[in-house]
Design brief:
The structure is a single chain. The chain is mainly alpha-helical. The protein has eleven helices and no strands. The longest helix has about 35 residues. The protein has a single domain, classed as MetI-like (MetI-like fold, Orthogonal Bundle). Helices cover about 80% and strands about 0% of the residues.
Length: about 260
């Protein structure tokens, strides 16, 4: 019975994805109408400069935002896990985790007001664009990275670091040789999570992006108001293929690492 429930759940999750993927290979322009197998819409996607430009911008912003989030969130997680009790720790922890519980509409509006106020007071930034979008996505991703890194540090405890310090290593050496290698997997996981959050975001981008910074989700949502298009189906299949390929490479890397260890 449990297997039946499991397969029903998986079918409910994957049936819409497979249906969409199937119709991406249909020759008909009308959505959900089978017109025979064809690569027509993938060829059309390759020639759609607007979609490709939005996709490249989304990848660029997501990569930059994920890197900033990894650096800032990793530092916040390390402070919360290793600096013990200090004045204002509760407030610092609450502020670090606030983006996790705040609705994105509230965060987006707050960031928009912040950027407008900064522009009026200092002249920076010059309008909304890629920079404001990158900073907004990094602020959201940093909270997730901080939780992952703090959990990793809390689970492994400070024994190895204390042992290295007892043997004469200074704080910088302990962090470089002990702490950083131990939290590297959590930093990588946090980077990947922040990348996906940024690449998939619509709400924050709606508040903090400008006319010259239209990301792929924003472009797709604006186009889908007129109905689903075959090019969008083809693009979704390409993204699905990249995600599956990434998971396969990750599993291969994990297996090779387990064999070595």
């Amino acid at each position: 019975m449990s297997r039946v429930v499991l397969w029903l759940g998986l079918g409910f999750l994957w049936a819409p994805v497979l249906l969409m993927a199937g119709f991406a290979f249909s020759d008909a322009r009308q959505p959900f109408v089978w017109g025979g197998f064809s690569w027509r819409w993938f060829v059309a996607l390759a020639g759609n400069a607007r979609l490709l430009e939005a996709a490249s911008l989304s990848v660029l912003v997501a990569g930059g935002a994920a890197t900033l989030a990894m650096l800032a969130g990793g530092a916040m997680g390390w402070v919360l896990a290793r600096q013990g009790a200090f004045r204002g720790r509760a407030v610092f922890g609450a502020l670090a985790a606030a983006p996790l519980v705040l609705p994105e509409v509230v965060s987006g509006l707050a960031l928009l007001l912040l950027f407008v106020a900064l522009e009026r007071l200092t002249g920076w930034p010059q309008g909304r664009g890629v920079l404001t979008l990158l900073l907004a996505h990094a602020s959201l991703g940093a909270a997730y990275v901080a939780v992952v890194v703090q959990g990793r540090l809390a689970s492994m405890g400070p024994l190895l670091e204390d042992a290295a310090a007892d043997l004469g290593a200074n704080a910088a050496t302990v962090f470089r040789t002990i702490t950083l290698p131990l939290i590297a997997p959590s930093l990588a996981a946090g980077w990947g999570l922040a990348f996906l959050l940024s690449f998939d975001d619509v709400v924050l981008a709606s508040f903090t992006s400008g006319p010259g910074a239209t990301t792929l989700p924003l472009l797709l949502f604006s186009q889908l108001r007129m109905g689903a298009t075959p090019e969008a189906h083809a693009l979704a299949v390409v993204m699905l293929g990249l995600a599956v390929a990434g998971l396969c490479l990750w599993q291969i890397w994990l297996r090779s690492k387990n064999r070595v260890s």
